[in-house]
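does this look right to u?? AR6 version
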Amino acid sequence: MPLQIIRNDITKVKCDAIVNAANSTLLGGGGVDGAIHRAAGKKLLAECMKLHGCKVGEAKITNAYNLPSKYVIHTVGPKWHGGNNNEKTMLENCYRNSLLLAKENKCDSIAFPLISSGVYGYPMEQAFRVAMDTITEFLDKNDMLVYIVVYDRNAVSIGEELYCSITQYIDDNYVEEHKSYGYRNFDTLQRDISIPMQTNTYEDVRSVPLDDKFLYEEPADTTANLSEIVDMLDESFSQMLIRKIDQRGMKDSECYKRANIDRKLFSKIRSNPQYKPSKPTVIAFCIALELSLEETNEMLMKAGFALSHSNKFDVIIEYFIKKGNYNIFEINEALFYFDQNLLGA
Ligand code: AR6
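got this back:
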């Protein structure tokens, strides 16, 4: 199940469990610990007093009282002493043990703050990396919706090289709405030009700006391709998705995990050929299937969408597809960094 990065106050997040970055007494403190105790009310402290503390890297669970979640999972992160004192392993243990405790308590969703990255001094970007890596490893074998709640925007850094490369790509390709060209959707194309439909017309509109060559080139043998075209038109997004999964010999679970999509949502899409997905959902599947830009546009078109150069989100997606980088978590980190919607979930 999916992983989402959100910017919020964790005490406001509605999910089965929220994680508290506590200290070993479990009797409250500052930072996120203070915020959670204030929002939960005094009963939380009363329950915590019965727990007799918690060791670094371990986790304990309580009720959540006035919070919108069911449980609070208290874990104690390591204090940063320069990085050579087992800090990383201890921090990984915090995430693993909290996730296991959530699983034991049948939680479907959990929200983490960036443990240790405040008062305990763990460098924010490194703390974020540990969170991402440990959680994705867990999600590989388990079903749960996990939120990483980022309070400080600077926690998410995508590395200078990637940042420069994406920024350059945006500068080169992003066009303001009024200058927008090409990448039109199928409906626009049909309204704008009245030439017979042909298979390669589809191909062209998917990937390149409209130009004279496209408009005036002699159509290929249209009649011969008619049944193919009709088949293509008839195939819904859901059917196309299933076909592509089969063609790639992928298991369903592999596909929805790589798409960062919830299993239940995937089942809904699978069982309803007329399912109307959102654009980020379609793109998430395109990423999971490692589709080319052309195939991505084809799949988007099935759901009534298209990639546009007047949309920063689309340009970033295009950047990753062109680079052949289909790691959805890396893409989401970049989208988050550039203040865009994330994929999946
Ligand atoms: N929601 C989400 N994240 C938050 C919130 C919030 N409401 N408040 C702070 N953060 P910290 P630690 C972020 O210091 O480093 C306490 O006194 C914050 O920006 O809360 O593990 C305990 O009692 C930072 O990125 O926890 C311990 O003594 C992250 O949460 C000690 O601090 C963790 O910061 C634990 O230190």
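Confidence is low (pLDDT under 50) at residues 177-219. idk if thats expected tbh
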